[in-house]
Amino acid sequence: MMVESASETIRTTPSNQNGVSSLSSQSDGGGGREGGSNGDTNGEISPVDLLHLQQQQALQAARQFLLQQASGLNSPGSNEVKQSPVQVPVSMAMMSPQMITPQQMQQILSPPQLQALLQQQQALMLQQQLGSKQLAFQQQLIQMQQLQQQHILNLQRQGLVPLQPTAAMQSLQQAMCPSDLQQLWKEVSGVPSAEDALKQAEGLDLSTNSSNSTSAFPKAASAHIPLHSLPNGQNHTPKRDRARLFEWISSFTKADSGDDHVPLYSKGSQPPSSHHEELSSSHPLYGHGECKWPGCEALCEDMGQFIKHLNNEHALDDRSTAQCRVQMQVVQQLEIQLAKESERLQAMMTHLHMRPSEPKPFNQPLNLASSGSLLKRDSEAYPEGLPHPPTSAATPITPLRQGPSVISSSSLHTHSHSHTHPVGPIRRRNSDKYCTPIASELAQNCEFYKNADVRPPFTYASLIRHAILESPDRQLTLNEIYNWFTRKFAYFRRNTATWKNAVRHNLSLHKCFVRVENVKGAVWTVDEVEYQKRRPPKMTGSPTLVKNMISGLGFGSLNASYQAALAESSLSLLNSSPLVTPPSAASLNMLHVGHDDVSSTVEQVNSNGSCSPTLSPQQYSHPVHVKEEPTEVEEDSRPVSLLAGVTHSLPLPSDERDLEEDLPTEELE
DNA sequence: GAACCTCTAAACAAGG
DNA sequence: CCCTTGTTTAGAGGTT
Hints:
InterPro entries: FH_FOXP4, Fork_head_dom, FOXP, FOXP-CC, TF_fork_head_CS_2, WH-like_DNA-bd_sf, WH_DNA-bd_sf. This protein is mainly alpha-helical. It is built from 28 helices and 4 strands. Among the domains are: 110-158; 438-534, Arc Repressor Mutant, subunit A, CATH 1.10.10.10. Strand 3 (513-518) and strand 4 (521-526) form a beta hairpin. Helix 6 (132-157) runs parallel beside helix 9. The two termini are 27 Å apart. The model is unreliable at 1-55, 65-118, 121-137, 151-280, 355-436 and 537-669 (pLDDT under 50).
């Protein structure tokens, strides 16, 4: 999008074309020296992680989009939405507790993600335009959600409400896509009543919109369920109707095994009046001294009081029934959505793992200015290294939000400013043990770096060294080093003057790089001894380094978001995935530790020679001697290093080969 | 505050 | 003369 001058780095990346540039709220606009205050958050993320995250974000984006539609659209026949007094707060409520705020979302999204997200939004928009009827339905439902959200938000702000109810509604909102909505409306014909009931339950003043909202509902719905025909006052459902309601509810709970998901009536399909589970010490509807009935945050000091409250306030009446129904809809919708997303994720994973040679989702038309042939060749040759993200259905929706948000912030900060920490040295060792940052990072994210204009979180020295060591002969000419940079990193396809100068500077400056006169000229090799010498200080300095790198070229915002995405997705992945194993955990650690020092681990792993996929840890402490026999050791190590940062479920030998075959590519030029 | 690291920028030289 | 390669210096920001 923008063309940078050769000497100075631009502040906007090509991938900001989506208008996303405004997203990063934390970055400074001009100087760029502050970009990554949490500089060390970068590190390990695989494209799959990003995909995973992308899905999450897309869902949220869709939800937000729906809200915007609801509040901003003049939909035919449903303008009452605009009158809703809660529309604005709602959008806030949507994201308040567990959800990612727009800013956060923007920060954690990498450009490719953002692009994908926007595409999803567009697709949604198209769908939305399919019918005003749908829209009316959506708006009704959204309004309902808004009301509840608003209420819950208020209570949450007062610290009265735990997150669960909101989570449920968020999930519902997440799940809302037009087609699903339509199906939902078909399946459950009584939504208006549910809405009314909700409103009543929350004690909101509905005078402004209750009538309107009702008008928008299909008449069939009102015929189905007597509830919704009630005035906005308290319910007066005849007992006969209640019986029907109960039947209806029972049928629902029986029908779709929703009992696991809808704890309202605990196990089975017992009516709310049942005391079975209420007597248990831990009631699913009771926690933190509050009633967790959706929309109810009544304080109950003890279980007895809660049970009383439950029986009194949430007895079998139309309100409770309606709420229950809504909750069931939530669950149903979630299940549908979960199935869809799981399926999609599965397909994505299948695609990524089974067809390495296919273009990756992150193949974006970012900038292919130079070394196009190399790039293409490379992308085909470098397919894998992707960790197996959790493919279980549980991953996509539920558990993700809470864990990462908490963990990431704390852990990231802990690591970033290497405070004193008993864990410090251990952490470092672990990271060193299990992974080779550069190797694994590149292996896992090579496609990303190749296509995204993101600066790799490594020093020039480590990159150069990696390039050299990666070469068949452990030696490269300057030009070959250049080519390696441009081939591996989209970022280095621009600003050539800057980084090439830096490369030369590094080659000359560091003792670890030895110039050797060769037949075909001068080549550069790596003196491992020298390189290791300067390691210790480097490790500690890595966070700084990252910051420098981030800010240095003016990619503060981008990198910040990228790193946030890295951290977020990695963490969430770890959190949610039982599949993630020690190596991955280690890679997570790496995320916060030295990045360039990683590269040194390449040899370290090599030196010990043991190539156990999962770990080749301990012995690498004194890798110094490696230089003497770089040739063989290196080759052995590379696969190891790759595996180290990844889960062991990788599809194997082919990938390694791919990686290796990547090297000869340099001869292309 | 010193020492150290890294990055950027620039000047300069030598060779093709 | 231009470009590439290689060396060197200087300054800035950051961490320990």
